[in-house]
Amino acid sequence: GKSWRQTIFVQFDPTRNFTYETEITLEKASDNSMAGFTIGYGDAKHGLFVLIDKDLQLMIALLNGAELNMILNPEFCTALKPLGSKNKFEISGTTAHLTFSVNDIKVAESKNLKFFDSRIGFCVEGNTKISAKYIKIFQEKAPIHLVSNWDQYGTKEPLGPAINSIYGEKHPIIS
């Protein structure tokens, strides 16, 4: 009957193209209760929330302290499947321009969002029960720019008997 959030930190850069995907089944929900997921979550008052209810209403909101920015006001969503059915959610793009999809149908877009952290997770508001099959985040790795004509190893120079021994010094261990 209260609010609950379970989040985990993941390493991704929301300013570079990414795709976030999860599958959620709304198992049980009472009136005036919602459940879903959060991304860019900082704390209970900072994050992007995607929530659904038993009446197939979808809400997408960015909470920034006391300020609530509604990306999609709670409204009936024809893309949602009924209570007890699996629903696939996808967010793709960058914080400069995000596209929101439900069951492969685009439902909303937003520009210039702020993510407060790299935590993602699930949330339940009120007397609600969900099950989630997975969370996936896809993002291409950033290129590594190497310095051209760099001498990778340099010249080896023995450092004397206090450092070098007859044994390999590849993996020093402090004992």
Would you write up a description of this structure?
The chain is an all-beta fold. The protein has no helices and eleven strands. It has strands at 3-9, 18-29, 34-43, 46-52, 57-64, 67-76, 86-94, 97-102, 105-111, 119-125, 128-138. The strands form two sheets. Strands 1-10-3-4-5-6 form a six-stranded antiparallel beta sheet, with no helix packed on it. It is elongated. The model has no long low-confidence stretch (mean pLDDT 88).
Give a concise summary:
The protein has strands spanning 3-9, 18-29, 34-43, 46-52, 57-64, 67-76, 86-94, 97-102, 105-111, 119-125, 128-138. It is an all-beta fold and 175 residues long.
Features:
elongated, 175 residues, 54% strand, five-stranded antiparallel sheet, six-stranded antiparallel sheet, mainly beta
Rg value: 23 Å
Shape: elongated
Strands of the widest sheet, in order across it, are 1-10-3-4-5-6
Series of H and E elements: EEEEEEEEEEE
The major β-sheet equals: 6 strands, antiparallel
**Count of helical segments?**
0
Helices and strands, with pairings:
Elements: E1 3-9, E2 18-29, E3 34-43, E4 46-52, E5 57-64, E6 67-76, E7 86-94, E8 97-102, E9 105-111, E10 119-125, E11 128-138
Antiparallel strand pairs: 1-10, 2-7, 2-11, 3-4, 3-10, 4-5, 5-6, 7-8, 8-9
